[in-house]
Write a sequence for this structure.
């Protein structure tokens, strides 16, 4: 491993992360360069480098790649101007020509066991169901069903991870809510959903 690689990695880590009015489970992690505001993250989840997560609830065992943007605030398209120079709340600019009230905070929900690929953009107010997969670079403007795989701009269904029977059984199992000790017992079968679900009496 070269000295230059170690130095560059160290610099990347030293940037730190910004977390405000949010709760991150002790077993979860946000990498440096990431921003989290008014959000929550469940256990054993992670967010990669340079992400933005605003007004969002992230479930457990969810994997968020680098440079993912989730949620945020809207601008008033029905007003004469979309600029915050005419709005009452504080923003990046100081000058105010009027102070109209406009600050909708749509809540975005990312379920458990979700995988979001690098560079994805998730519109505010979207619900991404348990076990769903969002392809890299996708622009998600509509809700994503549990165990649905979506990709593209705008994101569209590519396929389902499992058939309806298996997906339904996994949703009933809700394994992401089980204690760690129980997951260690079950974990050896996680490479085969059919075996796991038969062991648990759900198939």
């Amino acid at each position: 491993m070269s000295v230059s690689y170690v130095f560059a990695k160290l610099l990347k880590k030293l940037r730190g992360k910004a977390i405000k009015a949010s709760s991150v489970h002790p077993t979860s992690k946000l990498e440096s360069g990431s921003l989290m505001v008014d959000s929550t993250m469940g256990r054993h989840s992670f967010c990669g480098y340079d992400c933005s997560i605003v007004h969002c609830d992230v479930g457990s065992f969810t994997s968020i790649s680098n440079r993912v943007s989730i949620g945020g605030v809207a601008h008033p398209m029905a007003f004469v101007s979309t600029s915050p120079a005419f709005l009452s709340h504080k923003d990046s600019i100081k000058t105010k020509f009027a102070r109209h009230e406009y600050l909708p905070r749509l809540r975005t929900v990312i379920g458990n066991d979700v995988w979001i690929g690098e560079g994805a953009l998730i519109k505010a107010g979207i619900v991404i169901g348990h076990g769903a997969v969002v392809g890299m670079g996708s622009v998600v403007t509509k809700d994503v069903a549990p165990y649905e795989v979506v990709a593209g701009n705008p994101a569209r269904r590519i396929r389902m991870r499992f058939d309806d029977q298996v997906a339904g059984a996994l949703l009933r199992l809700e394994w992401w809510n089980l204690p760690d000790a129980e997951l260690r017992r079950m974990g050896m079968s996680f490479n085969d959903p059919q075996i796991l679900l038969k062991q648990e009496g759900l198939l």
User: Anything to note?
Assistant: Helices lie at 3-14, 164-173, 180-186, 193-199. The chain has a mean pLDDT of 94.
